[in-house]
Amino acid sequence: MNGDAVGRRQRGEPQPEPPEVLAELGRQTMVYQCLNDSEWTMVWVSEGCRHVTGRDPSELVGNRVVSYTDLIIPEDRLGVSVAVQTALAEGESFSLDYRIRRGDGTVARVFEVGLGIRDAAGAVESLQGVIALVTSD
Q1: Fold for domain 16-136?
Q2: N or C: which end of the chain has fewer CB atoms below 10 A?
Q3: For the chain, which residues make up each domain, given as ranges?
Q4: CA-based end-to-end distance of the chain
């Protein structure tokens, strides 16, 4: 971010619209916040959820229709969980490559980058990150 943009934000002035490439990135990736629970319960997800999972974001929020864990291919679930929990225990961000089953039943490979959000006591209260579709069948 350049100094001019920082100055506008600090003064409360309107920010310019993001470049089209950033807007497109938001439509093509799933930005999320989820609980650090066994279901990866989504608190919120971006519209890019449709592109990545083939599902409406409202289906995942609060596990309304399906949990994110349910989308992860069973053979990949333990590895995802261990990698995330290990990174969180070490105070690190995580990056993962694994498979999900999309809303239409096809299997897709995704790439995820995320980090733990800690409360005042230092406990991980949620995760935030981005998931990108790598390939789909």
Answers
A1: Beta-Lactamase (3.30.450)
A2: N
A3: 16-136
A4: 38
Tokens encoding 65: 């229709």
Own/partner long-range contacts of 87-95 (Cβ < 8 Å, ≥24 apart): 87/116, 88/36, 88/116, 88/124, 88/127, 91/116, 94/129
Going by the DSSP 8-state scheme, the letter that residue 40 receives in this structure is -
Give the bridge partners for 13, in sequence order.
none
Question: What predicted TM-score, i.e. pTM, was given to this entire model?
Answer: 0.82
Pairing type for strands 107-118 and 124-136 reads antiparallel
Taking alpha carbons only, the member of 4, 57, 62, 51 closest to residue 28 is: 51
Amino acid at 27: R
* Residue pLDDT, tens place only, 13-58: 666 565 676 667 777 899 999 999 999 999 999 999 999 999 999 9
Give CA separation, 39 vs 50, 77, 87, in Å: 19, 10, 18
